[in-house]
Specification:
mainly alpha; Serine Threonine Protein Phosphatase 5, Tetratricopeptide repeat; two-stranded antiparallel sheet; 69% helix; 2% strand; elongated; DNA-binding; transit peptide; PPR_At4g14850-like_plant; repeat
Length: 788
Amino acid sequence: MRAVRTRRPRPPRPSPELAKAPISPTTRSKPEEDPSPLTLPIKAFKLRLANGPPLASTAKDFKTYSETCASLLRLCRAMSATSTTMPSYAPSSGCLPLVLSLHAHAFRSGLTADRSVASNLLTAYAAFTRAADRDQAFRDCVAADAASSFTYDFMVSEHVKAGDIASARRLFYGMPEKSVVSYTTMVDALMKRGSVRDAVELYERCPLHSVAFFTAMISGFVRNELHKDAFPVFRKMLTCSVRPNVVTLICVIKACVGAGEFDLAMGVVGLAVKCNLFEKSIEVHNSLITLYLRMGDAAAAHRVFDDMEVRDVVSWTALLDVYADLGDLYGARRVLDAMPARNEVSWGTLIARHEQKGDTAEALKLYSQMLADGCRPNISCFSSVLSACATLQDLRGGTRIHANALKMGSSTNLFVSSSLIDMYCKCKQCTYAQRVFNSLPEKNTVCWNSLISGYSWNGKMVEAEGLFNKMPARNSVSWNTMISGYAENRRFGDALNYFYAMLASGHIPGEITLSSVLLACANLCSLEMGRMVHAEIVKLGIEDNIFMGTALSDMYAKSGDLDSSRRVFYQMPEKNNITWTAMVQGLAENGFAEESISLFEDMIENGIAPNEHTFLAILFACSHCGLVEQAIHYFETMQAHGIPPKSKHYTCMVDVLARAGCLPEAEELLMKVSSELDTSSWSSLLSACSTYRNKEIGERAAKKLHELEKDNTAGYVLLSNMYASCGKWKDAAETRILMQGASLKKDAGCSWLQLRGQYHAFFSWKEKHPLSLEIYEILDLLMLELTT
DNA sequence: ATAGGGTTAG
């Protein structure tokens, strides 16, 4: 024990001025008026030590001292909250010596075993974060059989606060009589660590009840996103006639919101009204705002806000979210400006909403404004703003935010690092992403998924597959990532193989899985598999889902089963512009050009906004019917809709004109926009030149094509064809030789079919199918059957 | 024991 400096050189006499005497050297230079009444008891106590009778010599006296000391300590703790602005309030500035002195005295007097003294010493040392002294005091207590239930409860919560759940657990199981307080502490700690199973086990074994205990379970389930599990606890609480309080109510409402159980929520609110629970609680009102918002009743949410007598930042932020949820980001911004005080959550909400709505640039701008406003970004904010950088592929911005996160110590947070991995991958920096991933001390499935998805986004399926095989635990997102990754990289067969593996692993496919699988089916023209997926969708009861319907209708159209495609389309209860576009396109590509055009007109009449893909489909339809006038009309309509034509649209228009024989017009259009076009437009013109035997334009087109792309085999073939069609056999032959000289070969076209899960490809000349001899024999037999 | 915001798949 250290010697305690309790006496100052010149002990002040008790007099009115002395009440204002400085209590420690650090405060001596401070202005005499003290802003807080908190220091007064400490001064009084110091005076008592300085001038009063010697310290207590009996347990009773000592109890008075130690209790005084404990209450002083509570004051110190309250003041230490303001100790950053006022250093003299820091707990070390005078109280600790008092405690040490009291402890020494108690030790000398053999009073450490007094229950009250022991527990006050314990709390005192805990307040000064002197863990070793605290633990010694606890051991003294136990040895002297002076440990009360409170002592144990306190120590359990001390260990929990220090994050030492193992010690807390050991202590808890060693408790002679477990109190409901310790049960509550343990359950809460376990829930916060995500050990839901352990928490539930304790809950089921606990013979005692209290509001806090039940509430801790409810909030624990909510924290772990197991909203539905919270309801039985609430029900049990009511059957045990434990009255819910305000905190319970808040947690239960949150559970209802999370589970989407709004009827139940209204029942709970009714109950709360009956119990008079939410009269003047700001917190309950705040949670009501969010409840009504999630119910889709923005007006009611607003009313709750308006009716509140006192509002805080949370109320205002919830209101901001009401506006944002209605899509009124401008209104949300106005709320932010009108708020009496903003914090990082208010800014973060607005930023997240802009990011979600796709206004990523504005999200980044708001982020800078937030920093300028003096708010420190938190985990959520980093996540959304990094996500914005990912969509913008803004590597510089993303790196800067990475630096900010590093500085704030948030870079190893799993939410932030998942976003970082995603951001670096979207910016084509897989190495950095991998580095972020490697630097993580602990990884969760989301990080793994992010990196896998990042590699597949960059077309690196080998790496993606390697990670997928290595990861310790997979969820359905992991499977979806692989399946859609293969579908995106046009490896449709692999996508289907992963789908089979997913089913075998016992994961239930969801909308996302099935839409990728349908995309694969559509591209493989695998009608059989597509029908199976359709059946699966009906079985899962999600056939009315707009994504499912669109993907199904598209799959049938691409597989050539237009009847089924139409049936799905017309039975859909809800359609969006993508649904309509897919159908228009399906009809166009299958040669139902008139029907495609009339469906497009229906679409416009129904007020569905066409997009660039819709127009591409309709131009395609026109080109196949030779409807030049119509095509020009739609081409102009498109621009009137504010959709700038892209190279594919020009290609299509050139194709329309060229097919109809308007070769000079086609060439003129091409020359006008040539720089933005890809080579296919020139190929298309060249091809038409061979049909219409136009040698002059054809040669110009071929020249242009050659300039743009030296290795384009199609160009040589087309040119050669054109010469052939004009009867210029010599030129045709020379072109072929030229092509071979450039060591180019025409890519072989092929067709394929699926048989018992295996794909068989058929080429026009090379690489004969291994069974081609047999196949042709059968074919001959069939032909014979048919003709006789 | 507590209200407001967040990451990966289409």
